[in-house]
Amino acid sequence: MKSRMFSKPALLCLAVLATSTQAVQTDHAAPVLTAATKLRLVNPPAQLLESLPAPTRVSAKPGGLEKAYDLFIRYADGTIYNPTTGDYDKVSLRAYQQRTDKGWNAEDPTSSSFLAPTVVMRPGQTVRFRLYNQLPEQDPKKCASTDINLPSHKGCFNVTNLHSHGLWVSPSGNSDNVLLAIHPNVNFDYEYNIPSDHPAGTFWYHPHTHGSTAMQVASGMAGALVVEGARYPTAKANGDLDILLKKFQPRRGSAAEVLLLQQIPYGCVNDNGDATRPCASGETAGMEGFGQVEPPDAWSTSGRYTSVNGKVQPILELAARQLHRWRVVDTGFQASIAFHIRRAKDPAKLLEAISKPNQDEQVMALCDGEDVPQFEVAADGLTHEKIIRKQVNFLMPGYRSDILFSLPATGAYCVFDGETNLNPAHPETADKGAVANTRLIGVIRATPSSPAAAPAQSPEEFLLSQLQGALNAIVPAKLPPNLRHDIAADLKQFKLSRFAPHPDFTAEDVARLRSSPKEYVTFNIAGIKDEASGKDITRFLVEPADRPQPSLEDVYHPGRIDHKVVLGTDQMWVLQSKRGGHPFHIHVNPFQIISITNTAGEAVAPHYQNMVGTWKDTLLVLPKHKIEIATRYERYIGEYVLHCHILEHEDQGMMQNVKVVLPDGRGGAAGDAHQHH
């Protein structure tokens, strides 16, 4: 069950072991789809269509380097399949939509989905979004609050904005500025200037207005951003892994590799905004009360199901004995996913079982074959130096994992959550009231490959042969012999050194940063007395290193700068948690994981297996663990945030402001231009 990176000796042992012990895989005919299961076939997310250019404007950039899109935020009425009942639930949810989209009905192939469209970008492009907030107006008196870190009322979640999670772009002005508030009936133009040296990879977008983030993301407002790369390695610069993996792309390209996971705990609410389940007959469910996301077990007790590309328990069709890439995006608002792919020995029975209501025990009993190993080549959109082999892929809210895998035989495979939707912030709620039928995420229908696949090999041998074949297929003019030789030698050790986007911090860098001033982030959940009522209120805090007792000073304040850092420098951060596990996310500049230690002297949690040395922008911070990360403040000045990516925690104050400023020329930070006027 443990993940591991490959070294050459380890690889040889693995290959011998896998070849000598590999079970004989029996091909089954791809299971026949009934009329009901055909409705469950899932397509890749639709791509966002470009908007028509203004007739009076002339593009200043060559064709293809300037893109403009219209993105609408509005209520969509439709249905979501419910495996508990075997029927479709009526819902009305906030959604990102295209101009012509309607509501979603899974039985109407012409309707749209609550899943937001995918946006495909390229380095060097200028990408514009006109965001139309067409949600209903809010009552200013009802929605006014003297404490922005306490939950809002029903009807107060319609102010929004747009965050491009993981993109390396400016946080200021009308770029990735999450401090903006776009009110209902307001249209706003965002402009992202994607640098020509931006990493190719898998990113995503979602709303980020403080107080409304969890409710809007849990309504389904999340979409993939794919930055496609076509740069070949040179003697002076690394290239994009896409050039090696393009051979394995589906017909619809990189957008068809997206596997976007969502948690939508829709239900019916009373006038106080508390969730009530089940809905009365004929009632339409929605996301209207903070009580639907606030409890630590909100997802595991919701009775809802993780959706894949807008469908619940879908059927995904893939060819056996071929290499596949999935860009897995976990957009969940709260719970983690222990992502497994496992063979089913009786495919026909499995597809029959998922057609029936209340089928989880039977379905999971039929997921009874071998686990399919996942070979992670990138995390959070950033290509690894080494491929990481995983039997179970721990995904936290905000994580992205680019995996390569192959299905050893035709038939059917279960994609499921092996942890029953454990909330990492509150492990004590793992089985408390949990609904077991949230485990199955989807079913892969494995069809025969065409042309005929190579004879059976171990997963490692098959992966290596496919990558070497892709390398050999690159025309000589694109890749000089010496670079081709180096990449081939790396691949034999499962290394991707010539495709990693960021230079690692050296041992000398780490020693220097450890002896320099650091930034500290300590998450905590604590009861703090409210002066008005005299009662303890649970508060979600980010504390400094020297805070002996929890304090209201440590909840989010929009006008306070918690971390002031200097452009052109690098720095070490120290992450810890006093209570609960929290996915730390920081905007703009990603970080490299330098060390992970268990402060109780125990083994580090399995979630961290082989993470040291990798680059990320979101990372789970568990109690009794101390994590050192290092980052560089490059190119962009301005103000942005860090926060816990369990989104109801962020909305209740588990967030801080970071400001990158210019240097003063004397080794310090420059002041604001008008500070003395």
Automatic annotation (TrEMBL):
Pfam families associated with the record: Cu-oxidase_2 (PF07731), Cu-oxidase_3 (PF07732)
InterPro entries documented for this protein: Cu-oxidase-like_N, Cu-oxidase_C, Cu-oxidase_fam, Cu_oxidase_CS, Cu_oxidase_Cu_BS, Cupredoxin
Primary site of residence: periplasm
Keywords assigned by UniProt, alphabetized: Metal-binding, Oxidoreductase, Signal
Species classification: Bacteria, Pseudomonadati, Pseudomonadota, Betaproteobacteria, Burkholderiales
Subcellular location: Periplasm
Span of the signal peptide: 1-23
Claim: Transferase is one of the keywords in the record: no
UniProt-recorded name of the protein: FtsP/CotA-like multicopper oxidase with cupredoxin domain
Annotated Plastocyanin-like domain residues: 160-229, 555-660
